[in-house]
Predict the 3D structure of the following.
Amino acid sequence: MNHFFCVSIQYIGSKEADRKADGAPQLGIHDLWTPENHYRWSISRYGGHVSASVQPVNPSRLFLCSMFQAISFFFHFFGYQISLDVGEIEKLRFRKKELEDNISSLEENFKILQTEQRHLEDEAAKLRKQRDDIINTVQRETNKRRDLEKRVNQRRMKLESIEKEDDLDTNINRLTDQAARLNMQRFQKAIEIKNLLIEAVILKWSFAEKQMMHIEHDVKIRQLEVNIKNQEKAALQASMHYENWWMVENWAPRRRT
């Protein structure tokens, strides 16, 4: 214990311990008595949080006795002698015993309080769980009520719309007339489709005939082109024959002369 001076197994410390009491929990001390204050630290079972409490105490002669004994030991170690009154020492011992008994009683009371605190914390946890369950139940019931209200409103609106309509016979007659009109329209559309199919067949035959005529015209045009080429060839041959004849006729008299 580097930061404490004269700390006994009953967690009793000096003024130095009082000045550095914040470090007591780190050393495993949860109940500390000093000449001026009484420190208590408790650890919560839920979360491990540490809570501290401080209570002022009256000056105790126990600490004076402990310090006096330490000083006596110091002087005795270095060869000094200190005389003490026997009656005063007995009084101090009696006071020390009384304080130790008080400390033991306080520790027992503290343990009882810790047990009660744990019990209260358990009860608080149970109550919190019950509260959460109640809140969840209320939310579920609220959602169910809203769903029921929504369904009731939908049914009411549907009934109101039905009430606003005509009676059943009128609706049946109206639907019958509507079905008859639809059948008539369907018959007319069937006739129109038939006429369109006939017209499509006629157009198809007409297109086929025109395509055959086009093919025949192409054949005739090709034949004419062939005839034209043959005539051009014959004309070319005739022209060449004529030129040869003309040359023969013109050049022959000159040779005779």
In short: The first helix runs from residue 15 to 19.
